[in-house]
């Protein structure tokens, strides 16, 4: 009987402890998470940035995806315009 | 003769202390002291409470060991998101001058987006002690001030991340603050 009571109390305290730990998990905050606005970062001159500064490094990490995508998009645009230019020169010949 | 004088002086002292204790207890029970947060303490009470708080924090916080890697981008990113969720409503953010909490709480929470000499509260020592002090306050809270203890629900590393962010906060522009405190994935926008 005593063993059952002790087991029950231990299980209950473990459950309470686990739930209290989960309540403050960073993932809890992700539901309404704001996305980083990297527009200011995109306009900045990268050559003038101090890459040793932890704030700059953190900004780069946060905006890396956006900046990579922008660079990919720019590259795609350049490729497309290049191919259009090639096509138009072919048609003129 | 001198023994009698000493005895009468001792009696006087005892009577004075007795009157002070009875008067103090009578004042406590009278309910005359204004407890509303919208009525500031008188200068003596404020000085007494502030001295009590700062001496108590200094005694314990100055022994805390600060991690070597405080100045890293990883800590800034982890601490920034937590600061925004848990602290910014009281301790504000760049370009934010006040909130309902800063107007209503007494004592008013310090604006941590300002440099240490602009905070409006006393400048609490050098950078090392400032970090030790912030860590202790975040972990343990401060009685009857509105500052909760985050220690029971957050481990030490997570609290140090917040301290690292608070250390860099006065240097941030509003745009940098937004980027560093956002938890979401920037690529999801596209």
From TrEMBL, chain A:
Residues 81-93 have a biased composition (Basic and acidic residues). Residues 70-80 have a biased composition (Acidic residues). Residues 70-93 are annotated as: Disordered. This is Uncharacterized protein. It comes from marine sediment metagenome.
Automatic annotation (TrEMBL), chain B:
Keywords: Heme, Iron, Membrane, Metal-binding, Transmembrane, Transmembrane helix. Residues 74-170 form the Cytochrome c domain. The keyword Phosphoprotein does not apply. The chain crosses the membrane at residues 12-32. GO terms for molecular function: electron transfer activity; heme binding; metal ion binding. Pfam families: Cytochrome_CBB3 (PF13442). This is Cytochrome c domain-containing protein. It comes from marine sediment metagenome. The lineage of its organism: unclassified sequences, metagenomes, ecological metagenomes.
